[in-house]
Amino acid sequence: MSQHLRTAFRLASDGLPVLPLRKGKVPFGNCRACVRNACGGRPNMKTPGPCTCPHPCHGWAAATTDLHILNAPTWARAWREAGAVAYHPGGAGLTVVDLDSAEAIAWARASLPATQTVRTTRGEHWLYQGIMQSANAVRPGVDVKSSMQYARWLGSGTGTTTALPDVVRALTVKESAPVRPTALTVPALAGVGECPHRIATYLDRGIAMAEQRIIEARSAVHATVYRTFLAVLSTHGRCGCLTDAHTARLFTAAQAKGESPRHCIDAWTNARTRLGL
User: Fold this and answer.
1) Taking a C-beta distance cutoff of 8 angstroms, is the pair 257, 215 a contact?
2) Which of 2, 61, 129, 239 has CA 20 to 30 A from 212's CA?
């Protein structure tokens, strides 16, 4: 067993979805059945994603925690030729802020909360607990890797992973979101009943899971957004902990999938009405 495969086994056993990288630090190309996504990627969809192919195809989507798949004969050649091990941050509930220059690191130290830090060949990876939309070049020397993206495994680094802060989420909104602040002015809910949140991260984890559900929607986006809003409100909508900032995160995720501000407000209002809020 190669060193890379041993590392992959250890990480997968800890719940981190992993995949092999070529010596150029890129995923292995698709097999003949999957080349140019001829297989359709996810079942019945023409977007990259896991399919029934036994090879490590489709880039980040090949990442897995299944030890049998990692050790399968169809993966053997990839592990023999691998130059590194990568992982899917979003699949592990993580976001990686990739800092590729001294200037980027200086910015992070001045602007971001301290968290687990891993040294890279050109800079540092800052790891946060939480999932968001990935984006490259959100500012000079800074990439965000989370959902539908991979990052090289370079060790566990130092420090303790902390919750994904809004300042990191805002990096992708500034560059790509068609969201206007006026579209997010939804009244906060008044406190009703006993607050069920035992720890501070409970609500943030719930919002992050809801964002991921919307981001991963490949069809019936309208219905997915409404059902997600309904689930969030049914769990967090009666105690007063749900704020405009949380609502803004959900609206941002929905608009990134093509929903209009009007659709977001309608879905939110309909969900509140159904729950009697």
Assistant:
1) yes
2) 239
Which helix (H) or strand (E) covers residue 105, if one does? helix 102-111
Give the integer Cα–Cα distance in Å for 26 and 162.
28
Distance CA 217, CA 234 (A): 21
The Cα 275–Cα 234 span in angstroms is: 7
Strand 142-145 relative to strand 94-99, pairing: antiparallel
The model's pTM: 0.63
Count other Cβ atoms within 10 Å, centred on residue 3: 10
DSSP string, 194-251: -----STHHHHHHHHHHHHHHHT--S-HHHHHHHHHHHHHHHHSSSS---HHHHHHHH
Each residue's pLDDT tens digit, 12-68:
999 999 999 998 889 998 888 888 777 877 654 445 566 778 999 988 989 999 999
Cα separation, 210 vs 215, in Å, equals: 9
Contact 239, 197 (CB under 8 A): yes
Rounded distance between C-alpha atoms, residue 189 and residue 208, angstroms: 19
- Separation between Cα atoms, residue 118 and residue 92, nearest integer Å: 17
Q: What are phi and psi of 95, to 5 degrees?
A: -130, 135
Are 139 and 172 contacting, i.e. CB atoms less than 8 angstroms apart? no
Q: How many CA atoms lie within 13 A of 115 on its CB side?
A: 24
> Per residue in 160-198, pLDDT tens?
999 999 899 888 864 334 444 334 444 445 444 455 555
Q: How many whole angstroms separate alpha carbon 42 and alpha carbon 247?
A: 30
Asked if 58 and 51 touch (Cβ cutoff 8 Å), the reply is yes
